[in-house]
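User: quick one, sequence for these tokens?
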């Protein structure tokens, strides 16, 4: 009875694992921020995140599924063939050179295969487009299928303790972005997610390459600027200017958080990027430059739902 149960359990678990890559691809996920019960990556809206999703759903998911199935098969074999009843006289050898070489070399080969596209995705994130270089996009092994225009907008992001400061470098205007607490959010932005809603979002145009320069306050600590739907995550280090970029193809609000343990309010440093149409952005930035008042400029944008 025990052996039959083990076989049925192993077969059912194996079937479930075999379906895992397809389940990861098929699951519907919301835009902009995580939802309760979500187990997959956030929906992609940039070429960088396209690469990450393709890498995750392709090489990574199939590799880990096959490894889990292989290890499960070994465990079942050990349980059934090498228990005290089936194998009352155990073998006395302790080493097998061939097996030890195989279980050392094979993982190294697997890691090398995984590393090749992984380094390509990382390189894409850290190399700001120049209008000529092509990017991986969703075709993880194509090495150059997505054309991305050169940046039209540069934003400098500074991590403070514990909020973000955004500067439109070419326009010469800046503002702070702070989390809305549980008393403020229901009054100001009731439909925005708790612990992610902010008073002032970074506003950028859709279908535009945005260069993001990331640093931290000279008297502060290390932070990390991360927006999952964009596929970007980069350290904000005092005295250092790091760069990344994104080109969002859909309007909406996309949230992230500081991803570096930076102190007592680390959990309360959300990032909110509002992607709007080109016309809406021009109206916003024009009003911001004229008034130097973020709230007055934000009033030119459609009201948030």
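Assistant:
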């Amino acid at each position: 009875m025990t052996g039959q149960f083990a076989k049925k359990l192993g077969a059912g678990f194996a079937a479930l694992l075999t379906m895992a890559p397809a389940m990861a691809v098929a699951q519907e996920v919301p835009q902009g921020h995580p939802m309760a019960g979500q187990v997959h990556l956030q929906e992609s809206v940039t070429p960088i995140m396209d690469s990450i999703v393709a890498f995750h759903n392709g090489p990574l998911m199939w590799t880990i599924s096959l490894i889990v199935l292989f290890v499960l098969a070994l465990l079942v074999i050990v349980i059934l063939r090498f228990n005290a009843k089936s194998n009352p006289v155990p073998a006395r050898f302790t080493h097998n050179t061939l097996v030890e070489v195989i279980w050392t070399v094979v993982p190294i080969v697997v890691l090398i295969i995984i590393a090749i596209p992984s380094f390509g995705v990382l390189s894409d994130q850290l190399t700001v487009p120049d209008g000529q270089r092509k990017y991986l996009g969703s075709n993880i092994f194509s090495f150059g299928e997505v054309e991305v225009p050169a940046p039209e907008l540069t934003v400098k992001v500074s991590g403070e303790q514990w909020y973000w400061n955004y500067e439109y470098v070419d326009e010469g205007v800046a503002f702070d972005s702070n989390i809305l607490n549980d008393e403020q959010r229901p009054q100001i932005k009731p439909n925005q997610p708790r612990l992610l809603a902010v008073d002032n979002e970074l506003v950028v145009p859709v279908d535009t390459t945005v260069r993001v320069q990331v640093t931290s306050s000279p008297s502060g600590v290390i932070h990390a600027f991360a927006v999952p739907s964009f596929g970007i995550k980069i350290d904000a280090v005092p005295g250092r200017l790091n760069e990344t970029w994104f080109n969002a193809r859909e309007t909406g609000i996309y949230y992230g958080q500081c991803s570096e343990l930076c102190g007592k309010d680390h959990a309360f440093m959300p990032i909110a990027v509002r992607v709007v149409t080109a016309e809406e952005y021009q109206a916003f930035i024009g009003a911001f430059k004229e008034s130097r008042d973020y709230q007055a400029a934000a009033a030119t944008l459609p009201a948030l739902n």
